[in-house]
Structure formats: C-alpha cells, structure tokens
Amino acid sequence: MAADGPRPIEAVISVGAPPVAISPKDTGQSARLSFEAKRGQRLTLVIAGLKMSPASASALLASVRGPGDELVSTAPIRCLASAPDGRCRAEITIAQDGRQSLQLESPFSAIASYSVSLEAIVQKALVLDGDGIDFAAAQPGDITRFSVDVPAGKAFTIAVDKLVHSPDVESNSLVGIFAPDGKRVAFVGCRTHGFEGRPPNPCNVVVPAPGAASHYEVRISTPYGATVAGRLSATSVAQPK
Amino acid sequence: MRLTSRAMATMSFVASCIAALPAGAQWWNPQSPIAPGKWEAESRTFVYTRNIYSSAVQVIIAAVQQGDFAKLDRMHDEFLKMTQAGGNGSRMINAFQEALSTFGKDHLERQQAFLKAWHAGAPTSKLWPAAQAQMWFSAAWDERGGGFASEVSPEAMRLFGQDLERASQALQEGGDAARQSPLWYAVAIAVAGSRGEGSRSLDALFEEGVKRFPHFTLQYNARLIYLLPQWGGSYDRADAFIRRAVMDTQADDGTWMYADLYASAGRMVQGDFFRDTRASWPLMRHAFEDASARGLANPNTYATYACMARDRETTRRLLGELGTYANLGMGRDTFTTESCRAMVEEGK
Predict the structure, then answer these.
(1) Residue B239, phi then psi, degrees to nearest 5
(2) B198 Cβ contact list (under 8 Å, min separation 6)
(3) Is residue A60 left, alpha or beta, with left meaning phi > 0 and alpha meaning psi from -120 to 50?
(4) Domain total in chain B
(5) Measuring CA to CA, which residue among A196, A179, A195 is closest to residue A187?
(6) CA-based nearest distance A185→chain B, Å
(7) How confident is the model over A36-60, as a mean pLDDT?
(8) Predicted pLDDT at B3
(9) Chain-chain contact of B293 with A75 (C-beta, under 8 angstroms)
(10) What is the pLDDT of residue A217?
(11) How far away is chain A from the Cα of B283, in angstroms, using its nearest Cα?
C-alpha cells in the first residue's frame, strides 16, 4: 500500500470554546483534534468556512473516536466545500468518558482549510400549557431544541406562531418531535408563503398521547439558506368527555 | 496475459451518475416523471440520479435494436454538449460506451447492416465512426476470448488481429470529423493498445483526447489498462497515472477518479489487490466517500473494496446500509457477500 499523506496537524479543542482554525500548508494534510467529554454527552460538530484548493468537489471527512479507539460516529461526516458558507453540522453522542479524538481527513490532492468547533447541545425547557418561548436560529442550518414533559395519556399540540424566515424564502422550516428513544413521533413543515393566493397552513402538529409520562425533544430546523424565528408553544389537546 | 474479454471489450465505465441537466434534456427518457415539453416551459435545471444514467443506457440499446440512428445522434450531440460544459452531466456520454460495448460477434451481421444504414442516412454523424470501431473491437475480443496469449489458438488470434484491423480502419475512415466525439478517443486507445502499439502512440492519442475533452473520463480508464503489468507497464506507472487523473479532474469529481480507476484496474488483478498494486485503502475510501456525498458511488463496489482491505468498520456499516441489496464480490471468487459478512463477524 502507498503512504497516505503528510503528518496530520494535531491540536486540542474544548467543547463550547471558540472555533479552531485549521490551515494546512501541505497538500493532503489532515488534522487530529483531541477533546474531553463524558459518556452520554451530546455535541454538535460544526465545520465552517471550508475551502478546498483546488478539489472543490471533494469532501472533508470527519469522524470521532473514543478513548478505546472505538468509532463514536457510525459513518464519516462528509462536508463538501460547496455547502452554503462551507458550513456543515453533525450531531454526536459520546459513548465513553475520557479523551476523544476528532479526525478530519482531507483529500490527498488538495489543501482543505476550515474552522472547527464543538458545541454542547442545549435544550430550552418548554412548559406544557405554559406561555410559550420566543426562539431565533442564529445561522442557516442551526437546529433549535426544546424539551417538554408530558404526562401519560395526554395528547398535545406543538405550534409555532409569528413564523419569520430571513430572508423570506419559499422553502420550509421543519418542526420535529422526538421521543426519548430518538424516534420522530410527529413533524410539520412550516411555510411563510401560501399557494395560489391562499395563506400558508398553520404551523402546528398534534402529538398522540404517550402511554407513560414522557420527555420529548422538539427540534426546529431552518429552511435552506435562511434563518427562522417565531414563538413555540405546547398545548394539551382537550379530551373528549 | 490473462484477461477477461468482456472486461477488455467494455474497458470500464461508470455505472452511476448524478447530473445537472439543462432544460429539455429528458425528451429521450420514457421513465421521466415530467411530461415532454414541461421542462422547456419551466426552464428548469435539476439533478439526475443514477437511474437516469441507467435509463440512458437502456434507451441507447433499444435505439440500436430499432435502427433509430437519428435518436442516437441527437442524444449523443446533447450529451456531448454536457461533456463540454463539465460538471456531473459530463458523465452522461459514458452511457454510449456502456451500451455500445454490448456489440459483439453474436449479432455481427445485424449490427453491420444497421451501421451501414446509419452511415448512409447520416454520413456526418459524429458518433458513427466510434460505434463502427467499437463493433469490430468487441467482435475482436469475442474471437480471442480471455486467457493468456499463449493459450489462444492461432486461428482465434488471426481473427482477433483481423477485427482489430477493421476497427482501426473504421477509426481512420472518420477522419478529423470523427474526433468530434470523445468516444472516438476511448475506442482508439483501446484498439491501439490491443494491437500492441507502443506507449508513445497511446500517449499521443490520450493527450489529444484530454486536451480536446477534459471532462471526458473514460479515456483515463482506457489508457490505464495499457499501463498495467499485463500490458508491459507497472503498478508504479499506473499509480502515477491515477494520481495525475485525480489532479486533472478533481475540480468536477473530487478524488472520485482514484477509486474509479483503481476499481477499473482491480478487474485485471487476480491476486491480492492491496498487496500487489500501489492502491491505498484510505485514499480509496476517501474517494468513495467523496462520490457517496454526491450520490455517485456504487455501494456494492465500495463495500467489496472495504472488505478486500479488511476494513471491518466500513464493511459492517455498508453491509448494514445495503441490507438485502448487498451483492459483494465484483466477479471475484475470493470475495462474496457471505465471506465479507464472516470477516466482519470475526472482528467482533
């Protein structure tokens, strides 16, 4: 087998710290960043400003390995320089306490420069039948997350009011509701534009009643190339008497 | 030299593609979900899947069977524009190579009659000379068969030489006009290589083709074959050529040509691929991932090479993704879906 490229850049990165800039000098030079994390910790890997010279159609591949060299991410995270703003995001869940290794693999024939950061996944608490929460995604591609506790046997409606897309694009933002096992139990695509003169459908979805008290996650994803803002609420569905 | 005739006749081709096609590009495709004329009306551009490529191959084969050379010429000229424009659409013209490589001695008389009618009906066809040469080239390898040259009968070798000579004449008869199709270069390199012409001659054809059609990748596959040890080359020369191919094409294809060309070479390697050749599995893996990110990779090919490299993590993941569609091996007896599953299980 042939040699696989120059020695990688090595650095330390911390969860929540400012992005680390990776600017290789050699063609094909990859990077290996180490960081501390705890079992069960959920993180978002953010690659931004990816520039590939000259292989614009190549992917930067990212993977995370735990202290025992086990693969944390099941598949390599692929980031193409053609992504909007050269920006890619991927979620990872840490399997084992200790020092993790984030490997960023460049194509052998190009220089890939970019910045990389790790963000802890934050959920704001949304209260069932409470006042609701204003939200705003800072960047296109950001996912805004909320947690909501629901008692057994109670169906509920998740709704977004005052929906704004910036810029005001035609495409949808998506609201997904996830059960504790990660399974999506309901979702709705939300638009600010209607069809043929009609107003857009309201942005809400009814989630069936859980058998036992449950802790749901609500994720709001931006439409393509825009940010999203609005007011999110969770309301019990009236039970038929 | 031990070769498979079909591998030589088809050279190699890319079995998948995604292509952004211009408005109106689907007039030929009966599988298109969009009604004819609608693309034109809406002036849109969209991304094709590899199903579109497969449809193109089937449409070309059907057009040959129906004797519809006008359709072939129109499709060719449209795909040629896409090749010249670059981008993923440039691979659509490869469908002709794949479809025309189904020519062979079994239906030679019918094919000759069709090509004669085509030449009479469309004497300025850009595609015809390459198609005519491909027919004789495929017939030549059908006559010869695979196996070492020393195992081929003198009569088969005589017919092989005779048909290659006809292929060569067909290429020359087209004159400069024939070189307006990039397919001419792929066939010309294959014919010259099979006739045992020297590197200088092959390099001249290849460099002229690359200069004229920088986005046409099959000429790299064609040239690579004659850089392999079976044809007097070496794996070092082949590796240098493959790396150069990536440098030439990476603005459109990323590092995909690394995996594509090594997979092409792999069909000619009977021994331990990663030990015998200069192929690097991490670089092939990256190239497959590049292609997967844009929907180009064939996951069964990817999984086969992952298995050959004994990369358990990647093989396990790909077998999981493929599920019941797993069909590993790529014609090799030593690697099958079952043996690769067993390799993955061993590592648990």
Answers:
(1) -65, -45
(2) none
(3) beta
(4) 1
(5) A179
(6) 23
(7) 89
(8) 45
(9) no
(10) 95
(11) 7
Q: Does A59 touch chain B (CB under 8 A)?
A: yes
Residue B320 domain-assigned? yes
User: Encoding tokens for residue B289?
Assistant: 């991932």
Residue with tokens 């090595």: A10
Sequence-distant (6+) residues with CB within 8 A of B39 are B23, B24, B25, B26
Q: Is residue B155 part of a domain?
A: no
Closest CA to A220 of A129, A148, A151, A167: A148
Q: Which residues of B touch A4 (CB under 8 A)?
A: 280, 282-283
DSSP for B143-198, written as a single string:
HH-SS-GGGS-HHHHHHHHHHHHHHHHHHHHTHHHHTTSHHHHHHHHHHHHHTT--
- The Cα-based distances of B230 to B4, B158, B160, B196 in angstroms read 12, 20, 18, 12
Is B232 part of a structural domain of the chain? no
What is the average pLDDT across B53-78? 93
Residues of chain B contacting residue A55, judged by C-beta atoms under 8 Å apart: 250-251, 254-255
User: Most A CBs within 10 Å: which of B273, B274, B290, as the mutation test of the A interface?
Assistant: B290
Residue whose tokens read 């048909």: B163
Q: ipTM value, please give it.
A: 0.73
B104-118, B191-205, B222-236: range with lowest mean pLDDT:
B104-118
The model's pTM: 0.81
A67 touches A96 (CB < 8 A):
yes
* pLDDT tens track for A118-128: 999 988 999 99
Q: CB distance A54–B250 less than 8 Å? A: yes
Positive/negative CA dihedral, B339, B340, B342, B343: positive
Is residue B144, in this structure, part of any structural domain at all?
A: no
Least reliable range by pLDDT among B138-147, B185-194, B206-215: B138-147
pLDDT at B134 over 90: yes
At A27, the amino acid letter reads T
Q: Which structural domain, as residue segments, surrounds residue B309?
A: 298-348
Q: Work out how many CB contacts closer than 8 A connect A with B.
A: 71
Amino acid code (one letter) for B124: T
